[in-house]
Amino acid sequence: MKGLVIYKGKYGATKQYAMWIGQELQLPAASADRFHANELIKYDYFILGSSVYIGKLEIKDWLKKNFYVLQNKKIFFFQVAGSPAEQIEKRESYNKASLSPAILKNIQFYYLPGRMIMRNLSGWDRFMLKMGAKLTKDPVEKKTMLTDFDNVKKENIIPLIEAVQTFTEINEPSMNLV
User: Fold this and answer.
1) Are residues 68 and 103 in the same domain?
2) Which residue range(s) make up the domain with 141?
3) Contact (Cβ atoms closer than 8 angstroms) between residue 28 and residue 4
4) pTM
5) CA gap 169, 129 in Å, rounded
6) What is the C-alpha to C-alpha distance for residues 26 and 146, in angstroms, rounded to an integer?
7) Domain count of the chain?
8) What is the SS3 string spanning 142-161?
9) Coil vs helix vs strand at 21
10) Which of 15, 40, 54, 136 is the most exposed place for a label (fewest CB within 10 A)?
11) Domain identity same for 27 and 65
12) 176 within a domain of the structure (yes/no)
């Protein structure tokens, strides 16, 4: 089976996960901007990754544009966000805000923790984050919003890697010639 890792991110965490996933599964990994529908047809399954920016998936436009090719393929999707991975309801709301119900039903999601280093953000993003923090009433949440964190770790991809390996083992044509 032929697989491909495609990602779209903003500050590098999604790319890092995509590279690790590609290495572990021995699959090519590349930015979504490099692939178009006519190139995607030859793949059996996809591992798609996206960061979340202002509550929306970065890869949403690419997914809409390529939906007709992806709709009948197996899709493993890793979402990278500052929101803790265990906040499933919040993480799912990002998917619902960005993806049509038609594509949502075909995707197996994995929620991976991200990173936020204030000095690496664009001026606009720093400004927006500070404005959001000002509007937040909870002082603990306000402080958390403005504190650097980096939870991008290779071990976070283990459940996704295992799921892809199981899928490919089950769906690989038998090599037994009887």
Assistant:
1) yes
2) 118-150
3) yes
4) 0.90
5) 44
6) 37
7) 2
8) HHHHCCCEECCCHHHHHHHH
9) helix
10) 54
11) yes
12) no
